[in-house]
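Weekly puzzle thread! Below is a chain. First person to post its structure in token form gets bragging rights.
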Amino acid sequence: QEYLQKSLDERTREVMEKKEEIENKNRDITDSINYAQRIQASILPPVKRLEDTFAGSFVFYQPRDIVSGDFYWYDRVWDDKFVIVCADSTGHGVPGAFMSMIGTTLIKDICSRPGVRSPSEILETLDMEIQEALNQNVDAEKSNDGMDIIVAEIDISKRYLRIASAMRPVVLYMNGEQIYVKGSRNSVGGRFDDESEAKVFKNEGFQMSKGDILYMFSDGYPDQFGGPLGKKFKMVRLKNLLRDIHDKPMEEQQSYIKSNFMLWKEDLEQVDDVLFMGIKF
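Winning reply:
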């Protein structure tokens, strides 16, 4: 019995030491990711830039983990144009954050070039440069990493909107009517199923009026499981949600979108990063 007790004590001590070692490693990893989150947050543009430019706006940004594969970027670029980007990178957490950093850096550079003058040109250039940055043009090392992304260009004085989208839809409210705009069926970056065909990104133009709204979002919101049956939120519910709230002030809309997401998710795990943006003309 003494021998068994001694063996048990020794095993317990070993387990406790291993437990402490794992806890220390987890703490170090979490500290590193928290620091990475601060770096990622510092790269995202301030929301005040949107508030100073448009009649109303909001950004609901909810990473699944500490860092996010979803990202947004916006700035005044050529002439009197303002470019807004809403992007969802492959993966989430640390791999997604790496992709978001690559995407943000490339987009900033592309928008400053004199030869790029439309949302579709931004996507075409970004597609080529992600493939080059990740060596996706090298047969032996092909990866499928990329991003689904919306690029919106707004002529501020004329209230004219041009959109080019890769795999993400856009919802507009024009004169109180909901308009659903499908995106291109190609992602940016990654392999293309039929490489004999070039990827095509098209510009779509809309003459907006005062009070009209542009909504952009990643797939994290409609793909979230929840509700009484634990099912996906889906696009139909999202359209109905926007129909209910589009005439409210933008701050109220953001609050409603956030509280509705939390209510739908409840105790279930968040399945993906969430990004939801609204711009009022």
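Puzzle host: Confirmed. Bonus trivia for everyone else. The chain is about 40% helix and 25% strand.
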